[in-house]
Structures are given as C-alpha cells and as structure tokens.
Amino acid sequence: MCLAIPGKIVEFVPGQTQLGTVEVTGVRRKVDLGLLQDDMPMIGDWVLIHVGFAMTKISEQDAMEQMHLLHMLGETEQAIEEVRGYGLEERGEHMNGSPRLS
C-alpha cells in the first residue's frame, strides 16, 4: 500500500536548501522539500510525505486526523516502517526504543 504520512518539520539540513528533517511518531528522517519550493515549509509546519518527498503542507489538525485514521486502520506500524525505509540518512532511534502511537 502507498501511504502519505504526516510529518512535522523539525529542522533544515545545513547547506542543503531542499532537505529538511521531519518527525513521524518519534522517528526522524530527512525528506526532500523540493516539491514545495513555491510554498516552502518552516520549522513546526506539517507536511504529507511519501517515499522521502514532502508532497504538500497540511494543518496540525489534519495531521492528527490522518495519524488517527492510520491507527484506526491498523496501518501505523506500516507508516513507521515506510519512514524508516527512506534511506536518506542513517537510522534514527526512537525515544524509548519502540514506536510511539498517537
């Protein structure tokens, strides 16, 4: 299944104008922000991400609803695995060693 997953922009990659770090349920990954260059997100903004690309900006409320829907459908773990698999950086660690569920 192809998932669009909400992630919060937590930082920008120094020297890389189109890369930012997003956090999804405690997992941090670098994502390509190039598709949003006309409306570049800022730290704290939420985006929908898919296979390592930020596709669109969304509100925090929409992000929470999307994560709740993924949880209700039993797709939270698959979403986390998709984020882990982006391969744009080394593997991140969860805060407590296990995924946080919303």
Q: What key phrases describe this protein's structure?
A:
five-stranded antiparallel beta sheet; alpha+beta; SH3 type barrels; 2 helices; 5 strands; single chain; disordered C terminus; 102 residues
Shape: globular
- How helical, in percent, are the residues? 10-25%
CATH class descriptor name: Mainly Beta
The appropriate CATH architecture is Roll
Average pLDDT, all residues = 79
Main sheet: which strands, in order across? Answer: 3-2-1-4-5
The structure class reads: alpha+beta
Number of helices, counting only DSSP H or I runs of 4 residues or more: 2
Low-confidence stretches: 89-102
- Span of the ends, CA to CA: 20 Å
Order of helices and strands: EEEEEHH
Largest sheet: 5 strands, antiparallel
CATH topology: SH3 type barrels
Number of domains: 1
Strand content: 25-35%
Rounded to an integer in angstroms, the radius of gyration calculated over CA atoms is: 13 Å
Q: Could you tell me the number of beta strands?
A: 5
Description:
This protein is an alpha+beta fold and 102 residues long. The chain has a single domain (5-84), classed as SH3 type barrels. It is built from two helices and five strands; from the N terminus they run E-E-E-E-E-H-H. The chain has helices spanning 60-72, 76-84; strands at 5-12, 19-24, 27-32, 46-50, 53-58. The chain has a five-stranded antiparallel beta sheet. The two termini are 20 Å apart. The model is unreliable at 89-102 (pLDDT under 50).
